[in-house]
Amino acid sequence: MLKSPYDWDDIRVFLAVYEMKSFSAAARELGLSQPTVGRRIKSLEGGLKSRLFERLSEGLCPTEAGVMLASKAFPMAEAAETLNRQSTLLAADSVGTVRISMNEQAGMLISEHVHQIRRALPGIELELITTHVEASLSRREADLVIRFCKPKQGNLFTQKLTEMPFAVFGAKGCDIEPLSPKGDLKVWLEQKYLPWIGWDEEHSYQPDATWMRSTLKMVTPVIRISNALMMQTIIRDDLGIGLLPSAAGDHDSQLIRLTPDIPGLVSNLHLIVHGDLRFVPAIRSVMNELISIFRTKAVAC
Question: Pairing between strand 255-257 and 156-171?
């Protein structure tokens, strides 16, 4: 077997510099010192007998040799990352840590059923990450992602977990009359002075926020929030009314449902996994448990 004259660590540093266009930024990204980054680039240039970057006023610019090296090195880096992910497949048992990133609405539902996963999979340590920020599956920021939106690209496998309808909820004992069985939902929703809780501008993409903007055009929320759990807490404290996933609101003993499920306000919840990790035993086992949980009557919406 031929031995490469180039050090893979040098290539890794080169790719970071190529992307960041700066020795200092690449050093921060890789956790190295700037002189170390400079030495590795010089070592690589010496082996190739070509200059890889020109220093311009706006930053480092790759030379023709640098561009050519990048075209070969990036596929190598991708292949190395794939190999790293797939190495987990060597494990024969459902053991290890599985990281699940989810939005808060999914977290509301899953939190009540973690004991079921732990009982079924005692060898797996769960790391539950509740966030609006999209975790990168390719960089292993999470093993599984639960989101409303399906990914548009990438080597990702998506499984629809459930349809999640929303309804209006208030605190048990609040002085707002629920919609009567024969009442007109549109008229009820358009009542003046209803103390609505809504999302802030940064989270206006949430499905219930989008519905409020299009349907309750004259409504100005009395409180705006950035977190679904905060929404539920504020409603419990009788500070206003708001939209919650029906399953989450119905399971909260301190809340009362004020309307039936809102027609047209339904979000699909998806389970997403990187294609290279789909059949890793521990991840596959957690996926199966999550699918089972969302198909039970306890979580069905």
Answer: antiparallel
CA dihedral sign, ordered 277, 278, 280, 286: positive
**Structure letter (DSSP) for residue 134:** P
Work out the end-to-end distance of the chain between its first and last CA atoms, rounded to an integer number of angstroms. 59
Cα 189 to Cα 171: distance, rounded to the nearest angstrom: 17
> Is residue 236 within a helix (H) or strand (E), and if so which, with residue range?
helix 228-236
Pairing of strands 124-130, 96-102: parallel
pLDDT per residue over 165-196, tens digit each? 999 999 999 999 999 988 999 999 988 889 99
Separation of alpha carbons 198 and 30, rounded Å: 41
210: CB partners within 8 A, 6+ apart: 204
Question: Can you tell me the distance from the alpha carbon of 54 to that of 60, in angstroms, rounded to the nearest whole number?
Answer: 6
Other Cβ atoms less than 10 A from the Cβ of 108: the count is 21
pTM: 0.61
Closest CA to 214 of 223, 222, 205: 205
Tokens linked to 161: 């977990």
Alpha helix positions (H), 153-206:
185-189
**Calpha distance 252→233 (Å, rounded):** 10
